[in-house]
Amino acid sequence: MSERYSFFSLVRHAVNRKRPWARALRRPTPRNAYEVVIIGGGGHGVATAYFLAKEHGLRNVAVLERGAIGQGNSGRNTQVVRSDYYHLVSSRFFDRSLQLYEGLSRELNYNIMLSQRGKISLAHSPHEMELARRTVNAIRMNGVDAEIVTPRELAKLEPMLNLDSRLPVEGAAVQWRGGISRHDAVVWGFARAAGALGVDIIQGCEVTGFRIEGGKVRGVETTQGPIAAPRVLMAVAGHASELASKAGLKLPIQSTCLQAFVTEPVKPIIDHVLVSASIHVYVSQTGRGEVVIGGGADVFGSYAQRGGLPVFEANVQAALELFPCLGRLRVMRQWAGTADITPDTSPIMGKTPVEGLFISAGWGTGGYKAIPAGGETMAWTLANGEPHEMIRGFGLDRFTSGALVDEGAASGVAH
């Protein structure tokens, strides 16, 4: 092993104050004005900043994060990536995002630990199998990979899966390109790359209001003083409605708590991401051996980033239906995020009624898998002043026109 990566070099760096570790991010002081201000330092915010700088040459950009990078919903999810959506507008968008994920480690020079192990959606009745076949056909007509597997094939793919639970498994729909990646690596990779291109990523800077004159946004008010900008993007998760209200906008969003947890690490026993809408659970195993378990969102509105015992117990019972072998494992960590869910469970992206004020919100439970394409398309939208053609169907005006993009079933479990 080279001296650079040896144990002794790590110890020397840890105790030698004269040679501290180089910072991954600069700590800039906010300027008085920027070309673009992005509110929210989660995955969508930093990805948009990166693509603005790289693809459109806009580097006089500030990302304002009230806390620390990656400590919001971007670090409070189950890191699933996939593109098996039903409607064409969703399918095209999420498959573009998955394509970007497939090259993201090289793009950012940062290992996001992408593992395309396959995402399996279980069916527990002949009726569900018929729906699965129709969904697979629609997904394949959209140009996205999907196929049906039988119980016998599932037994070979997942030997520990209980095919004869109280809801016997009849088969499944699979997207082999689906899988998981490391969520904090994605956020930090985009943040580091954006910072290297000159973007100011300002942590501990909360936006308290907007400066709007004549129906146009002029900038934002923050806890570190006013910042002028002709273009502002709201890319926050969990509190999008509260932030938008400061600009006089009322969003069709319900915010609720979505929780998950991991067990103690064990040797590999689950090779894929498995989802059951009927049993109401999704399960995967990390590279460290922890089993990740999640289910539906809480049934009441809340901004609390903490879980409740009834949902926790329901998720445990559901996981044990599929994998009884998990029964003796201890739960090591539990967390929760605040999910902003729209009536059609699709995001809100593009322009708002306030000129120069843009939005990327309402991602519900699908925001993580959308980070690369969300950043790419919103950067194009900010640079050109019009919605990218891939996200026109996600505009805020669809709730008045009635052109909804209903992807409730694509969530895998009800939310």
Structure description:
- The structure is a single chain.
- By secondary structure, this protein is an alpha/beta fold.
- The protein has 2 domains: 32-77 and 184-252 and 344-411, FAD/NAD(P)-binding domain (3-Layer(bba) Sandwich), CATH 3.50.50; 117-178 and 254-341, 2-Layer Sandwich (D-Amino Acid Oxidase, Chain A, domain 2).
- Helices cover 28% and strands 22% of the residues.
- It is built from 11 helices and 19 strands.
- The strands form 4 sheets. An 8-stranded mixed β-sheet has the order 5-6-4-14-15-16-13-17. A 6-stranded mixed β-sheet has the order 8-2-1-12-19-18. Strands 9-10-11 form a 3-stranded antiparallel β-sheet, with no helix packed on it.
- α3 crosses α10 (371-384).
- The termini are far apart.
Break the fold down into its secondary structure elements and pairings.
Elements (H helix, E strand, L loop, with lengths): L6 H9 L20 E4 L3 H14 L4 E5 L14 E2 L6 H15 L1 H5 L10 E5 L2 H16 L5 E3 L1 H7 L13 E5 L3 E2 L2 H14 L3 E4 L3 E7 L2 E7 L4 E2 L2 E4 L5 H6 L8 E10 L9 E4 L4 E5 L5 E4 L14 H14 L8 E11 L6 E4 L5 E5 L9 H14 L13 H4 L14
Helix pairs in contact: 2-7, 2-10, 3-10
Find the structural class using helix and strand composition: alpha/beta
Widest beta sheet: strand line-up:
5-6-4-14-15-16-13-17
Sum up the overall morphology in one term: globular
Number of helices: 11
CATH topology of the largest domain: FAD/NAD(P)-binding domain
Distance between the termini: 49 Å
CATH level-two architecture of the largest domain: 3-Layer(bba) Sandwich
Largest sheet: 8 strands, mixed
Number of domains: 2
Uncertain runs with pLDDT below 50, 5 residues or more? none
Tell me the helix content: 25-40%
How do the SSEs run, as a string of H and E? HEHEEHHEHEHEEHEEEEEHEEEEHEEEHH
Instruction: Using the coordinates above, name the CATH class of the largest domain.
Output: Alpha Beta
**What share of residues are in beta strands?**
15-25%
Total number of strands: 19
